[in-house]
UniProtKB/TrEMBL annotation:
Organism (species): Macrosiphum euphorbiae (potato aphid)
Name this polypeptide is given: Transposase
Amino acid sequence: MYTTIFFIHISVRYIDEPISTQTSSNSELDLNPSTSSFGQSLVFDSLTPSTSTIIEDSSSNITYKQTKMTQFTLNKTSKNKTDNALAYFNATSMTPYNVVEKEGFKLFVNSLNPSYKLPSRKTVTKSRIPNLYIETSNSVGKLIKRANYLSFTTDCWTSSSNKPFIAMTCHFITNFKLASVCLGCIELSENHTGDNIADVLLS
């Protein structure tokens, strides 16, 4: 329907123009995107990102070559940034560290960037996660220092293995918004009695 309306518009608007004018106009604009170089570039860019494709522009004889994804190598800074993003994913989604060893996850990451090499499980455990913890702890400390008033809440529960745990959360106002940060979550050495909870909070 839209093609028919567009054809009628073209026919009515340019019916009185000389044939030479219509010919020159048509040569400047290719109305068929499926055969034009622009249409081809869109198709190749979206469907074959990992292969090299050569497209020639017949009007200027310029050759365009698509860069392979494997040629987009990561420098050290970009590699560290991606590793830290992976550690953040592990921490916030509570996924196990051995996710980097799963074949499906490796395939997924390789499809995003074949030049990126996943860190080992040991690197994530011994380096990336601890560094993320230190960075987060420093950021939380700065937020708390800027707050005028603080309030605290505790949450106690017993796990399925019958082990008692306690967590403490700090609440404060920052930029006229309520903020809450978890200060810690530890296993209690004894049951959830008032004296035991008080000892943990004071320590």
